[in-house]
Each structure stands twice: as C-alpha cells, then as structure tokens.
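The data are quoted verbatim here:
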Amino acid sequence: MRPVSFRPSFEKHAGQLCRGVMLHVTSAQLFAPVALTYLRLIALARAQAPEAFAFRATPYEFESAVPAFD
C-alpha cells in the first residue's frame, strides 16, 4: 500500500486535490478484498476521526436504498 493523490477533472470534486492509498496485491490467493482489506481500511479511517466518520443519512445521487459513505 502506498499514498496516492490526484485531481479529478469532472464531477463534484473537479480540480480538488484528493488523497488516498493504492493497494498492490502480491498474492491473489491470499487477498480477501472485502472481508480482510476494505473493512479493515474503513475501521482504520474511522479510528482516525471517529467524530467525523459517518454513513450518509440521506439518499446519495440516484441511490436511496443503500447508505453511502460521507
């Protein structure tokens, strides 16, 4: 995993510097993307700022049945 940054050229974050991480899978047999990786990343993000972490309580764009992150 390594840090990455980019500037989207369209949509709501156009022109803004966005940061995240890039994952590098070294073993497809051991990689469990949802259970072990992304849920852990969500837990780590929440631990960094628990007061700011939340699921959206309102519909997101065209989706109203499944809550989105905010």
Remarks:
- The radius of gyration is 15 Å.
